[in-house]
Description:
Elements: H1 5-16, H2 21-28, H3 32-45, H4 48-63, H5 68-83, H6 88-104, H7 109-126, H8 133-172, H9 176-236, H10 241-254, H11 258-285, H12 289-349, H13 351-386, H14 393-399, H15 409-423, H16 433-449
Helix pairs in contact: 1-3, 10-15, 12-13, 15-16
Amino acid sequence: KPYSDETRNDIVEKYLLGESVREIHDSTGVSTGSISEYINDFASKIERKTIDAIHDFFKIIRKNGMQPKDAFYGHVVFSILLKHNLDPKQIHSFVKSVLSMAKQNELSAEHLMGLCNTVSTIQSKSDIPLHEIENHCTELAKTKDELELSIDKLSSQHKQSQNNLSALLKKNKLTEQQDKSVDLRLREKQSKLDDVEKRTHKLEKKHEELSLMHENLLLRHKSVVESVDSVEYLIKSGVLEKDIVYWQKIFDTFGLTPADFLAELEKAGNAKKLFRKLNSTNTKLKKECESLEKKKSWLEDKSEELSSEISNGAEFGKKNLKKITDHAELQINNAVTLTKKSLVTFMKQNQIQMNLAQKQYKEYFSDLVSKLENLLEHSHQAEYSLSKMESLKPLLDLLNDKFDSATSISEIMIILDKLYVNIKDTDLDKHNVSSDIKRLREKLLDLISHA
């Protein structure tokens, strides 16, 4: 009997899904002949191999208890594995091992994929090949165990150290009060040390000053030795000692150097030559002597007045020079006494440092006293020289334009120099006497240079 199209399509679908003719007959009640006829009719429209392949495929699926959609998912997985060059023969073992590992570790598919991504990230950051990650993780685990053991060991050592420290603190009984006491003592010692450093600095300064004074003494000693050699040489050459003293005073007064002194000597030599020329012209002047006789008589009349004035000046000079001498002696004695007192005080305060220099200072001050006494002696000699002021008449003649060529110019120069040295910066100089003497000397030199 004929069946509806729906029944016929249901028979064909069941066959394609893998059911046999007998199973279709049992489920539908259609005879096996009609079922075969419907299948052949459908096969006439499509290639028979394709229908048989579909039938066999679904038959296998049914045999394994699967649904068609499961077959579709399997096809997708199979395609992905083939795309990654996995051998088809190894697909089953690969999937089985992965699923076995996931089941063993109770991992879901999503969790398994997350772990795979995590491993990939670790490998990219650590530059460790993927096949060596297992060994690396093993080493890390081993290192972790070693570090834990080290931490435990260090912890025990730390506890032991704390116990030892506590024992030491108890044993030494180092309290805060003791620390403050030690700090206070240290500050006191530091303060004392600062005072010692300040005193040491002062002593160093005094030592430097003494060293400078010692060097000055050595230089003076050297200068004195050289001066003594020079003086001995001059004395051997016939120069008197007092002349040497006058020379030195002249040098100091006029600021002359040895070279300047030689220049002055050269000028004196030239003046001597000039005197010779003047002597040659003296014969010419004799003719004028007669006219000068009258002037001479006039000068003789005036000589008594001039002598009286010179005597009065000499007496005035003696009196004031005596005052100067007494004042100089008093100042010198006071200076010596004050110097000796200061030296004694200084030596008492610095006895240790001054033991070496004491002898040198005594010699120096004794030499100073000797020089001052010599100065007094020269002052007395100057007083004696002033008592002979009658010899100043040639200077007065020169000042009044009554110069006599027969008088020695060198003698006048010596007199002027002696007067200048003994009068300058004294009470006699309050009327500018030294300036007049200097002016006379310059005028005399000018006269010689233009003669």
